[in-house]
Amino acid sequence: MTEAETETFETIRYTADVVVLTPGGDVLLIERDWPPFEGHWACAGGHVDPGETSRQAAARELAEETGVHVDAGDLRQIGVWDQPGRDPRGRYVTVAYAAVVPADTPIVAGDDARTARWWPLNALPERLAFDHADILRAATAAPHPIFEELTR
């Protein structure tokens, strides 16, 4: 491989995010406790660990950051976000998932979250991290299956 060829490769980090919704239309967000976007609100999520699928990582990160336990098999994939520049730390590709939980599901801010809170979808915080506004729109737009669960 030539030097020019090696310069075209970039490090790509693999992550998973979770949109957790209640049947009444609230979404669970964490307030980030570290840069980038410290103090901004985000979906629970993080790096996929070695030997783990993105679905397993999504369930693990959700439990670690919010105390909400969802079986990985119950997560529905929303899509993949891989736009260059979506994270100021470098190239990150995330697979986003969604789940619907009962409205009375207790939450506790975990290791990477300053706080965790339920937000009405029609009154989201102004400061959303990364491209999580796009992920939230995709999760709650028809004809996504999660939208069908929310509108029953």
Provide a concise account of the structure shown.
With 152 residues, the chain is α+β, with helices and mostly antiparallel strands.
Please identify which CATH superfamily we are dealing with.
Nucleoside Triphosphate Pyrophosphohydrolase
Order of helices and strands: HEEEEHEEEHH
Provide the CATH architecture. Answer: Alpha-Beta Complex
Question: Helix- and strand-based class?
Answer: alpha+beta
Strand percentage lies at: 25-35%
CATH class: Alpha Beta
Number of domains: 1
The coarse overall form would be: globular
- In percent, how helical is the residue content? 10-25%
Average pLDDT level: 92
Number of strands: 7
Uncertain runs with pLDDT below 50, 5 residues or more?
Answer: none
How far is the N terminus from the C terminus? 56 Å
The largest sheet, given as strand count, sense and whether it forms a barrel, is: 7 strands, mixed
Radius of gyration: 16 Å
Number of contiguous helices: 4
CATH topology: Nucleoside Triphosphate Pyrophosphohydrolase
